[in-house]
Amino acid sequence: MFDLPPDHQGIKDEAARLADSLRPIAARADEADRVDADVAAALRESGLCGLTVPLRHGGRHERVDPLAVTVARESLCAVSAHLDSLFALQGIGGHALAVSGNEALAAEWLPRVARLDAIAGLALTEPDAGSDLKNIGTRVRAKGGELVVSGHKTFISNGADADFFTVLCREDEGHSLVLVPAGLPGVTVRPSPQIMAPHVLGDIEFADVAVPESHRLSAPGGGFAPVLATLSTFRVSVAGAAVGLAQAALDEAVRHTREREQFGRPLIGIGAVGQMLALSWTEIEMARSLTYRAAWQAGRDARAALHLSSMAKVGATETAGRVVDRSVQAMGRFGLVRGSVIERLYRTARPMRVYEGGTEVILDSLAKTLAKGEA
Ligand SMILES: Cc1cc2nc3c(=O)[nH]c(=O)nc-3n(C[C@H](O)[C@H](O)[C@H](O)COP(=O)(O)OP(=O)(O)OC[C@H]3O[C@@H](n4cnc5c(N)ncnc54)[C@H](O)[C@@H]3O)c2cc1C
Predict the structure, then answer these.
(1) Is 111 a pocket residue for ligand 1 (Cβ < 6 Å)?
(2) How far apart are alpha carbons 331 and 254 in whole angstroms?
(3) Where is the Acyl-CoA dehydrogenase/oxidase N-terminal domain (predicted)?
(4) pLDDT value at position 2?
(5) Does any ligand 1 atom lie closer than 6 A to the CB of residue 178?
(6) Distance 1 CA to ligand 1 centre (A)
(7) Is CATH 1.20.140.10 correct for 224-371?
(8) CATH class as words, domain 121-215
């Protein structure tokens, strides 16, 4: 695949139109620690969240199409990380329910997820367990026909605004995945520490929260299978977001360095400055090519393409980090101004290398694949 198929180009353009309409409020939304009502209304109105849910539950494609989600995120994250996150989390939080949840439960929640009438959250991380998810302490136990969840999750996207959480718990010797509606007695959400690129984040306390047995999203002890299904479908979309962000940062730097003159000529015509931007352009095109290829393959067999999705995630987020840094450098003091577009992109790029699989964790697992001779 060397060009996007027309349907995917159409989705990319559709997302770009939505993002463009929100450009005037993007800076405000990207500083928010709760969901921005105007962004949510526009995203709801656009119908784009239908990309994150299968057709039978109100979505657009028979199965979630990773390339469609990826190109949508490329357009959204170029303008607003808040908009991008709100879109992506509908899939990341709801996918386990779509692939392995009880049909009645899926029918209850997923059409609302597709319409953005319900906001999803995925609760894996805990104070003492980030990359090492097998070490979580949150527990679920079956009791009198119900499931009882207790524990503490932290840094959960959509925090206080989520309507339900897909929660990874320990169950006996294994791990299980359980859907917990946010409004139940025993669920308390507090703000997480805010990060350099503000994000809607919450710490969730589950104090003996009882849900029906039908809220299981995995077989008892089989909780990592739907988590892996979610990662293998959506990890590559982080790469799409990173490519969009990197392109926006390059565009900012090109615009500035074409207009600003030093030593009697535009900055971009001064070799070292122009070359920095040319290198960024080259790296973005490489990242985009790998990202599209990985997303295309993920649409055929997400598990089989996980190594490519992982490479795309590392490659594109590390590229975005280098591109925003060079763009700030090329813009000199103007690149450092608080509240400027480039300063926001610079901050937004940083967490991408940590969440949904830190660079080192992903490289470690790719290295293991190489060592086994499975590449
Ligand atoms: C903006 C944002 C949104 C988030 N949203 C969510 C969410 O919705 N739901 C959720 O559950 N979590 C969420 N998180 C948490 C995120 O998933 C974790 O930050 C991530 O898993 C890394 O865990 P950690 O921060 O505890 O880092 P640690 O696990 O403490 O790792 C620290 C460093 O060590 C490296 N490292 C760790 N283990 C290894 C290893 N075995 N090999 C090589 N290197 C290693 C890591 O790459 C990293 O560089 C979010 C985080 C952020 C920043």
Answers:
(1) no
(2) 9
(3) 6-115
(4) 76
(5) no
(6) 32
(7) yes
(8) mainly beta
Return the ∠ at Cα 156 (arms to 155 and 161), rounded to 5°: 125
DSSP per-residue codes, 39-101? HHHHHHHHTGGGGGSBGGGT-SBSS--HHHHHHHHHHHHTT-HHHHHHHHHHHHHHHHHHHHS
pTM value is: 0.98
Q: Rounded CA gap, 194 and 17, in Å?
A: 30
| CA 217 to the chain's CA centroid | 21
Question: Residues 37-47: pLDDT tens digits?
Answer: 999 999 999 99
CATH tag for 6-119 (out of 1.10.287.70, 1.10.486.10, 1.10.10.10, 1.10.540.10): 1.10.540.10
Domain ranges of the chain: 6-119, 121-215, 224-371
Q: Is 90 in the pocket of ligand 1 (CB under 6 A)?
A: no
pLDDT in tens, 136-151: 999 999 999 999 999 9
- CA-proximal residue: ligand 1, atom 46 (nearest): 358
- Determine whether the shortest distance from the Cβ of 236 to ligand 1 is under 6 A: no
Q: Is ligand 1 within 6 A of the CB of residue 157?
A: yes
Summarised one tens digit per residue, pLDDT across range 303-356 is: 999 999 999 999 999 999 999 999 999 999 999 999 999 999 999 999 999 999
Q: Tokens 């805990």 appear where?
A: 126
Residue 223 has pLDDT above 90, yes or no: yes
What pLDDT score does 229 carry?
97
For residue 366 and ligand 1, the question of a CB distance below 6 A is answered with no
